[in-house]
Amino acid sequence: MNSPHTSSADTGTRRLPQATGIDSSRPLRFTVDGQSYSGFAGDTIASALIASGRIDCGASTYLGRSRGILSAGIEESNALVRVQPRVAGDVSESMLPATRVPITEGLEADYLSGLGILDPGQDELVYEHKHIHVDVLIVGAGPAGLAAAREAGKSGARTLLLDDRSAPGGSLLSSPGRSVEGGLDESIDDVSATEWIETTVKGFAEAEEVTYRPNTTVFGSYDSNFFVALEDRTRELVETEGTGSGASTDSADGDRDNTASRAGTRQRVWHIRAKQVVLATGAHERPIVFADNDRPGIMLASAVRTYLNRFGVAAGQRIAIAATNDSAYELLADLHAAGIDVPAIIDSRTTASAMAERVVDTTGTRLILGSTVTGTAGQGPAGRISRVTVAALDEDAVAAGHGEDIDVDLLAVAGGFSPVIHLHGQRRGPIVWRSDIAAFVPRTPVRDQFTVGAINGDYSLEAALKDGAEAGNAAANRTGFAAALTVPKAAAMTYAPARPLWLVTSAEDDHTALTTHFIDFQRDQSVADVQRAMNAGMRSVEHVKRYTSISTGGDQGKTSAVNAIGAIASILGETDLGSVGHTTFRAPFAPVPFAALAGRRKGELFDPARITAIHPWHVAHGAEFEDVGGWKRPWYYPRPGEDMEAAVLREGKAVRESVGFQDASTLGKIEIRGTDAGEFLGQIYTNGFKKLKVGKGRYGLMCKPDGMIFDDGVTLRVAEDRYYMTTTTGGAATVLEWLEEWHQTEWPSLDVVFTSVTEQWSTVAVAGPRSRDVIAKIAPNLDVSNEAFEFMGFRETTLANGIPARICRISFSGELAFEVNVENYYGLAVWEAVAEAGAEFDITPYGTEVMHVLRAEKGFIIVGQDTDGTVTPQDAGMEWIVSKLKDFIGKRSYSRIDTAREDRKHLVGVLPVDGTTRLAEGAQLITAGTPVTPEAGPVPMIGHVTSSYMSPSLDRPIGLAFVENGRNRTGEIIQTPVAGGLVDVEITSPVFYDPEGNRRDG
């Protein structure tokens, strides 16, 4: 159940004039827990509620304790809401941090007690995926990230800047944007931070190669600088629907999406490949662990400063500050300037730092050194904090006695900062403990990455700008883009060392009952839970984490991880947290909706179709399609009045008698590069490729370790260290995975890499007696004679229309044939050029059905149709492709007794004796005269039909089959059941057409 709030909406809103992040001319009404509140455009639910006097939120998950808003950003663990549908087709969303949800007119939300409520309704909004390659990716739009993006962008490098906040600026959003007496000088290049941010971001909008995306959380970092991010466009969607406009509000940032396609998009998952990366992810402030540190009204000092300056909201009117470091004094200066009463600032350090002395002298605030807050009291229905107990600390950081009580209505805690090293850690980047700032930081960046600003523990504005600018410039340089370096200037600032407090206890405490010293607010986990885990024998941070569930919720360790490690260290009597260790970072950094991960994979897009560049032509010419490996492949092209059989016979005769062309772009294509590429292919294929000459291709067969056929295709040798492999359409992804598996597990020392290029090439197959004439017309600079252009050779040339092409002499039909390969962009143009060149020969497009028929006439197998995982090359009559001189995957299996026996099922041809019956694919074959009755059952089967077609060349039905000892039974009559009885079938050679192979060369 939700806690009663401290005041109703009738309290009204009190705003301070320094707000930099709201538009006070645009008031908005919204509802939380059935109560109506008001705010302004730019407010979050949290900031608007605080302005209305409400700081409490839903009760804690397991203990039902009253809780309040803790932070101002993504690290919020208490104030979680369920938001009702906001636009047509929407569903409610749960477990959203109130600190991140912008208010919109009429928004309805309810606080949750740590558990979400799944909406069973139909979500009709759009969730999409975007794949992008960039030169430089910058994560975080704080001062370091902005400086990095500016320097990288001006070089011309393609730069992507992503930030999880709704506005750029990072920590600068918490500053007043003006000079505050006693405060920091946060001007940049002699202008206010606000003005510098605006100028910098305006430059992004004007730069052609810079893309800036707010509200975009990078949640996953993977090998080779592959990142995944979630962009939330809900606010834009709500505001767009409210205005009735379908226009996109994107800036000119290099994202050239069609506007109409983006209307209605709620969230987008970005898949990013970056050459160089700059991590400017900042740091999150930590709470301090003391008794009853979870009351409403206990808030991170950085959050109090954010609400004060960005939203113009004072979170309290009598605010005490508990500090372990200098950052608290930035807040003190701002509170004093705003006229907020600060009865005391309690600093754990025994000596005032230079910043502390300056700010305290300016503000006249009482400074209590060498002390901390040891406990709190609350009042009212929500138990909002009303008093803090302060006590001095001894040299072991143990509080001496009860101390004094101070009345407050808010306690701002500055327990130190935890650099956001999650993305660095996800890549297994090395991490080290820095005792001077009491934080884990990257020891060294991951390859092709930079870490800048607060992630390194460098909290000064001067350092952030310098490191960011230099990293952006260096990252661009590494990608081949150079520009003069300009480092933004800011005032120098030195922060004194911190005195962290991991566990506040006093000599009077019962150390075995620290049940209200909370570490993870979302999980209701306290120091007592850590003690319980350690009493059970746990010592590893990872073990304690799992025993207690600390850091496993939406928090993901942002505010709780380091405090948990500190508690373990305190219990062990260890002062060096680095020796205790840290948790392992895994994606996602922040929660990601399943709807976003699924993207548009619903409705008609649940199984998205892949189409070639030539697809529009096929549609325009009436093609019927079949799905192959996710692709829409033309099946046949019926003319008016034709059924499938008539169309297939016509297309087949055209190829045999004149010329036909087929879109073969869907074949899998893999580039294989490296000095050991030939040796590796020799292990993968049953035949050799190491001695294949450059400019030649070779048909290859792959087998599994059991010797059974796995995939096949033609591989070209493009250069000494580069091959171009083709695979079956449906097997492309599996083959690529197969190559990677064997390279990584068996032959990692071989110099070879693999790249899928299926979508990068369009392929037009031209087959038939007149194919040479067609190729000669589209490639006039190429000698296509049989003597100059041999079978299984290929040539690089330029077509008559100026398009560069790779033309191969490959045939899957037995006819003279060529394949024209061009960049995918040119696919349709080349297809149309082939159609025009072949018009005088009545060139005919043919689909997959005719391709199957023509290859069956020649006895060529199709892997997956004529094979089923139990067929060896020898079974298929392909022993000619199995090397006896080298080793390869599956070779030793051929010496097994079962694999070597001569009476296995063999590939044969089958012809219905009556010359008219077309056999069913999958039909069982039996020995002639075998009784087929229930009394005689079970009926012994000797084989089955794998392929069956009406042959346009033989003008009769033909088929391929696997039959026991089939090659030794040629001429035998066997039978197959059909409706109404049995049909006699003759076993023949699988090669029905041109057995001598004369037609291949024209």
Automatic annotation (TrEMBL):
Cofactor note: Binds 1 NAD(+) per subunit.
EC numbers on record: 1.5.3.24
Biased composition annotated in UniProt, kind: Polar residues: 1-11
Keywords: Cytoplasm, NAD, Nucleotide-binding, Oxidoreductase
Start and end residues of each SoxA A3 domain: 517-600
Annotated Aminomethyltransferase C-terminal domain residues: 905-994
Pfam family, one: SO_alpha_A3
Region described as Disordered: spans on this chain: 1-26, 166-185, 238-265
GO cellular component, one term: cytoplasm
Domain FAD/NAD(P)-binding: 135-424
Reactions listed under catalytic activity: sarcosine + (6S)-5,6,7,8-tetrahydrofolate + O2 = (6R)-5,10-methylene-5,6,7,8-tetrahydrofolate + glycine + H2O2
Cofactor: NAD(+)
Example GO biological process: tetrahydrofolate metabolic process
Amino acid composition bias (Low complexity), ranges on this chain: 167-179
GCVT N-terminal domain segment(s): 614-884
Family (UniProt): Belongs to the GcvT family.
PANTHER family xrefs: AMINOMETHYLTRANSFERASE (PTHR43757), AMINOMETHYLTRANSFERASE, MITOCHONDRIAL (PTHR43757:SF2)
Protein's name in the database: Sarcosine oxidase subunit alpha
